[in-house]
């Protein structure tokens, strides 16, 4: 999908360079440019671009202040910060404000193309998630996966495992007990692709997975609870792994790709702070549903392209 961009930077050479890169690389369409934060705010609210490329330091209004103002006025697009700043605390503050990626000055064509390609990828994932919620809204899915019928399967576990194992490796969770449960749930969801229904409740997924090798309602209920705990521990391990990478290097490709894709960045940042301060308060937040939705979409994409 072609994205629309707005570029906000007080340097005309930077604006022109970014616009040319976006156009020549066919990354999307630049629908607005601005010389400062105040002008940028007006143009962005008028044009509603998908992505805003915004300079951090500008004479009239800095990038972070502009972003906060845009959010207060209802703009919810994606932000890419343009900056020479390397201070980790300031970079962390930018991420907390809603920045998803950085482009560092002086502008480098390869970096711009790489960053904006990742922005496009993340936007497509979000678009697919929204489509999944809206287009499959009328019927409950997986209703036939009761304890008596959930043992039937048309997708070979190894095939699905092959698709998701590289993701597990990059998330640092290979070997975690919950990976088997995640794979089982992916098998169930992939078997159901194309059938109407909203994304199933987590409890229903846990019971469907448990029903593959447990048979009585009591056994299924007990195993579903165990699956929930194993998956939560595994997803928390992924959060810890990515936060550790980000604490060392914000620019690490694995961190930049997987952290905002699988987790809310506020949760990643909180875990990074916790690790940096050498404490573990045991209160790490993770959205299991978001994690499963993204994992499913990545597995589905791999299955269609195999």
In brief:
The protein has 12 helices and 5 strands. It has helices at 12-24, 37-47, 63-72, 88-97, 109-135, 157-171, 178-191, 202-210, 217-248, 253-262, 265-276, 288-305, and strands at 3-8, 28-34, 51-55, 78-83, 99-104.
Could you give the topology of this structure?
Blueprint: E1 3-8, H1 12-24, E2 28-34, H2 37-47, E3 51-55, H3 63-72, E4 78-83, H4 88-97, E5 99-104, H5 109-135, H6 157-171, H7 178-191, H8 202-210, H9 217-248, H10 253-262, H11 265-276, H12 288-305
Parallel strand pairs: 1-2, 1-3, 3-4, 4-5
Helix pairs in contact: 2-3, 6-7, 6-12, 7-8, 7-9, 7-12, 8-9, 9-10, 9-11
Explained architecture:
The chain has 306 residues and is an alpha/beta fold. The protein is 59% helix and 10% strand. The chain contains 12 helices and 5 strands. The chain has helices at 12-24, 37-47, 63-72, 88-97, 109-135, 157-171, 178-191, 202-210, 217-248, 253-262, 265-276, 288-305; strands at residues 3-8, 28-34, 51-55, 78-83, 99-104. A 5-stranded parallel sheet has the order 2-1-3-4-5, with helices on both faces. Helix 6 packs across helix 12, helix 7 packs across helix 8 (202-210) and helix 9 (217-248) packs across helix 10. It is elongated and about 70 Å long. The model is unreliable at 138-146 and 149-158 (pLDDT under 50).
